[in-house]
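Contributing new records

If you add data, match the layout below exactly. Sequence lines come first and carry their own label; structure lines follow with theirs. Keep one chain per record. Anything else will be rejected by the validation script.
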Amino acid sequence: MTFSRQLARFACAALLAAAAGAWTPPAARAATVTLTSVAYAGKYFVPLSELARAYSLSYAENGKQVTLSAGPSRLSFRGEGREMTFNGTSIWLNAPVYMVRGKWSVSDADAQNIVGPLLRPTQYLRARGTKTVVLDPGHGGKDPGAMSGGREEKTLTLDIARRVRNLLEAAGVKVVMTRDEDKFIDLDKRPAVAAKNGGDVFVSIHINAARDRSVRGIETYVTASENFPPTSEARLQGKYPKKPNNDFNHSNTVLGHQIQSALRNLTRAEDRGLRHARFVVIRESKVPAALVECGFVTNPDEGYRLGLPSYRDTLAQAIAQGILNYFALVEQSKRGAAGYVPAAPKPPVQAPAAVPKPVPPQPVTPVAPQPVQPAPAPVQPVSPQPVQPQPVQPRPVQPATPPPAPQPVTPQPVQPQPVQPASPQPLDPQPTQPVVVPTRPIAPPPGNMLAI
């Protein structure tokens, strides 16, 4: 399949398929959400029931399992654990879900930096850009990275990054590579490339490895919130000072979730989730950043797949789709919530013009067959001649044509306008689906890519 045909296939698929006391998200002053938090274990925690109230979500508790939902948005938490799911994609919290004063609660950092951006992504992205992507193929030169079965991480990551670049450039996005050859680059110089070239996002691409060859799956990392440990550390206490990339905690969550969700849907690999770490290349980045682990080269099955150009192309499609989904949300946020909601009633308004035309046949079709159906059984033995002149075809046509004429004027198109805009107001569920800016028609192949 040629690249142009493949790109057209993606576009078609896209058309079928986003504190202590009371806090205010810094990047979302216009959409203030006030939450009540409680001090516990040296941190502040927000009851999940309080989040349900603030975001107009339904609350369901079954033992340690807590579910918050509204429309297509569904968050599932498990008490005493750090892993939650959002619309099927695994998300790791900064701190476990604790029982505080008789209520299951999450840390204020998770309420502010994870739950809020997931539910209302467009409220946190108005200051972000959509022009330039900096891709960082991991390792290179004297640093081969992970190795297994004759496959080197530095070679695989460069190949995937080049494929992502081709897809993004075809969608009209400028792409800058930290390296475009087998060259060693210091870790601290990689995020500097984004600052030097006016990057809007920074995405580092890597291949995983583990001593246990049974370990497999894809995962995406964003910078851990200040004062909280990375996902790999079990302890909650410790000193974790603020890093430059913590200025983009909200945007990081949206970017990381879109990439991880696209990877999960396209590759069908095991979902190891959106995680938190302090890798140099993302923590020092001064733009929204994410690090993608495309699979475990040490796993026999996954290592074999990583060696296939077709699978690396699928990985590239997912990464490119995730980035473009993030850019689409940025564009929507710049138009504002009011700019996105009115777009919903437009399709129903255009539809009524064509609806009255097929309406006249609808009353005719049920009337005509009713005398014909009982007639064949008795008429065949008697005489078919009296049956043929009695279909009375002009009779159903005469009463049918006048009534439908005034029906197109009925207020059918007016009903969707007050109803449909009301659904996105509590949350921002629609942009969380993989959508693509019309000028950037990159999308994954056909499949279940909408369940994000």
